[in-house]
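Write out the bound-state structure for 1-deoxynojirimycin.
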Amino acid sequence: MSQTAPWWRDAVIYQVYIRSFADGNGDGVGDIAGIRSRLPYLKSLGVDAIWINPWYKSPMADHGYDVADYRAIDPVFGTPDEAEQLIEEAHRHGIRVIPDIVPNHTSDQHAWFQAALAAGPGSPERLRYVFRPGRGPDGAQPPNDWVSCFGGPAWTRLPDGEWYLHLFAPQQPDLNWQHPEVRGEFEDILRFWFSRGVDGFRIDVAHGLVKHPELPDLPPRTEPAVLGPLSRRDPAEHRCRQHVDHPHWDRDEVHEIYRTWRKVADEFPGDRCFVAEAWADTPERLAAYVRPDGLHTAFNFDFLMCGWDAKDLRAVIDDSLAMLGAVGAPATWVLSNHDVMRHVSRYGRRTVTRWTAGEPYVPDGPLDLDLGTRRARAAALLMLALPGGAYIYQGEELGLPEVENLPEAVLQDPIWERSGHTDRGRDGCRVPIPWSGRTAPYGFSPDHTSTAPWLPQPPDWADRTATAQTGNATSMLELYRTALHLRRDHPALGDGDMTWLETPDGVLTFARDPGFVCAVNLSTDPHPLPPHTTVLLSSAPVTDGLLPPDEAVWLEV
Ligand code: NOJ
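---
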């Protein structure tokens, strides 16, 4: 790794889903005080940065992805002063801070949307959003056939007869990015937070901002796979991997916005960084977001969605490195986030499923938690050995599984309601983190807090707490910690190149210079370890020179 390369080319970024990370004030909801109290943990884990899900003032219709004021912190999470203190303290721990920015839509409680509602049809206030008359003689049909990613139509009608667009919940009206005020406002918001010391932004729905000016109906059933796992659309519509001109996803014009944002970031000292949540049909389309005059990095959802299959994984790795490398961008790797089933539970199903974007993930068969955990350990070593940067979703370092049996009465994700109670949504991967103790709330809230965490934690998580795992050499936490520290120190890891080595089917083996080899066995038979001088780290013990199925190893050669 070059000493002068910007930090984001190979950073390990830890995702803090703030309401579930740590509760500092005892109200059962995670907050900034909680994050501050856990900075020593994050430092000892060995991450380079944290990405914090939206912390702005919000009515929480989608847990903060409905922003009412982009310059204010929601009181449930803390105060603006606390945010600045967090940034400063994190920097002192050597950890950079990347908040989420939500430019595709605001909250319906945002001052602009309230003004648009009050001003009525035809007013300039409505031009900042996407208002249209309906179709049909009395305008009772929505303006087009677009659907919300959370289920149901993407349009809601107001009492005055006009409809407004929301690609997500009705409380999340889409902004009109053709409007200069919208562009100017977001550039100001970026400057506001950059000047308070943030090191970058994760851009929500980065591929959705620009809509076709005529808002045409969706194309017939040739539509590509660009909606991401939140989509409630018919999966059969989303199988092809060719780009199709889509009326609201991944339109070419969106890149012009990010060229301006790049200039804004470049106004500030140090290496500030944008990471795009961009669902693109193909790796080529994804690479278009991360050019030297555009955004810096993007999530690699192909890696996340890939099943536990050597051929598929190798193809994703090759495509990602080739396409991103061609535009000079680093690859990134991610296994889980707050929108998808945790990977211990995905990998713990015997059937290998390649998960198609646009298709909700439906677990196939009963969960084998041991199998899922073994594979998750191996996957972590694979991810952290690949060239580029990596994302860790809070709790994956504790090996947390998806909580699949939350009672219906506690479900809060808008998907649950919008799907007419057919899709339980994403609460199962958002259960508050267990820190210590033998019973819930496992140190999530301060001792003696009487308010329960906002989602109930399973009764059998005592052995999964950070405290229970600390110092236990066989724990997931110690595996991550060791891997992150080795990764930081080893000259072969991080940014750079890799070379595949000859291996039997089902085994992935690659070398990185100088002197490093990673091998992952995704087959059902043990395989001999490649030649080496030392075993640096393995996801489970290796004996007799054999790498057992569902295990990975880092070797010095
Ligand atoms: C993507 C975010 O990751 C998800 O949590 C959110 O619901 C949607 N964007 C809408 O903002």
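---
The first helix runs from residue 18 to 21.
Residues 62, 65, 102, 168, 204-205, 277, 338-339 surround 1-deoxynojirimycin (CB under 6 Å).
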